[in-house]
From TrEMBL:
Compositional bias segments (type: Polar residues): 18-48, 61-70
Biased composition (Basic and acidic residues): 90-110
Entry protein name: CsbD-like domain-containing protein
Region described as Disordered: spans on this chain: 1-48, 60-79, 87-110
Source organism of this protein record: Staphylotrichum longicolle
Amino acid sequence: MSNPFQSELGRDSKEKTNQASADTQSALGGTAKAATSTVGNTAAGLTNTLGGVVGAATRGLGQTTNSATGGATKPLGDALANIGAGVENAGKDIGEGGKRAGEWKGPSER
């Protein structure tokens, strides 16, 4: 004759094992998210800063070229200013992408 309590005990043991496994996965996921969040946000901040500094400097160089030399080199000054604005915007976009990655968000989640 089978023991009616044995199947109940076996079920409790299996549920506890499954819960322990889920708890472990959750803890590891939380640790991974914390680590990647720190790295992602740090890299994003540095990229954003570097893009802003390089972009502003290049844009300023283009504006200075226009101011100092007049109309003859205006196309060159405008090109430098536009390159600077592009570098600045690219740094900002890459930085924002790194920040979203650090927060474990996809490209469509802003």
